[in-house]
Amino acid sequence: MACMSADRQLQESVDRLRAKIGTRIKDHGSGAVDRVSVRRFREALGLVPDPDLGVPVMMVAHLLRADADVTRDQRPSESVDDMLADPVNGGTEAEFARPLILDEVIRGEMFLADAFLREGKAGAMAVVVTVSRYTDSQQREVANLRSTMIYRGVKA
Questions:
Q1: Dist. CA 80–CA 18, nearest whole Å
Q2: What is the pLDDT along the chain (156 residues), one digit of tens a residue?
Q3: Long-range contacts made by residues 56-60, C-beta under 8 angstroms, separation at least 24?
Q4: For residue 38, what are the CA distances in angstroms to 48, 58, 93?
Q5: CATH of domain 6-154
Q6: Segments in 45-97 forming alpha helices (H)
Q7: If we measure between CA atoms, which residue out of 92, 142, 135 comes closest to residue 113?
Q8: pTM surpassing 0.85?
Q9: What whole-number distance in Å separates Cα of residue 97 and Cα of residue 136?
Q10: DSSP class of residue 55?
Q11: What is the domain partition of the chain in residue ranges?
Q12: How far apart are CA 100 and CA 119, in angstroms?
């Protein structure tokens, strides 16, 4: 059996993902916007750590992602396809429906929005776009985060 080229493996990964567009690919779970978490988040951002001064809206993304680094543009290493490798953060767009409220519970789910190949200086890359939707206990939208990850290769 001949070895499949890296470009072909990349194409197959994108094809697998394209078949899943629109589906939920991850449950982020739920978390409470409690005073301790808000204090720590405000402090990590260099703000006065008093929760009564408000809940920073970006806390919604970190509330359910304890492994994300608040102080740097770094997300946990994750992939939506086991073959994709060498990820680069392609950016995040955030849309907030309303501010977070102390003591409310937020739930998050991630959906696959798009997957495609793009040619770069070093060759083909897979571009994967996900949308994380955050809702309150009454299923009302709180925020949507649209994230783009670029994978520059496949696992050997």
A1: 11
A2: 445 788 899 999 999 999 999 999 999 899 999 999 899 889 988 999 999 998 988 888 777 765 555 555 444 455 688 889 989 999 999 999 999 999 999 999 999 999 999 988 888 899 999 999 999 999 999 999 999 999 998 887
A3: 57/94, 57/96, 57/99, 57/100, 57/143, 58/94, 59/33, 59/100, 60/96, 60/100, 60/106, 60/108, 60/134, 60/142, 60/143, 60/145
A4: 11, 11, 22
A5: 3.10.129.10
A6: 59-63
A7: 92
A8: no
A9: 11
A10: -
A11: 6-154
A12: 40
Is 94 exposed, middle or buried (CB count within 10 Å of its CB: 0-12, 13-18, 19+)? middle
Residue 105 is encoded by which pair of tokens?
């519970």
Say which residues have a Cβ less than 8 Å from residue 134's Cβ, sequence separation at least 6: 28, 60, 61, 64, 106, 107, 108, 141, 142, 143, 144, 145
